[in-house]
Amino acid sequence: MVGDVAKATGGSIISSLGGSKYDDLNRIIARLRQSYLLRYQPTNVPSGGWHQIEVRILRPGRYDIRARRGYWGG
To answer: Is 70 left (phi over 0), alpha (psi -120 to 50) or beta?
Structure first.
């Protein structure tokens, strides 16, 4: 269930591989250093209801997109 919530919100679960908490933290920091954070402010959309988000990369190559599926406006 926790994994479902993380996936639905664009997140992930990082489980320990038997190392120390410092090893886990270093893996998280390494992942953040290899990431981009995109931010946007939608315009001309209704204030209420579900708004789907679609992230696409047009450049060829292998990319791992982690994004939430949408948000509730209000």
So the answer is: left
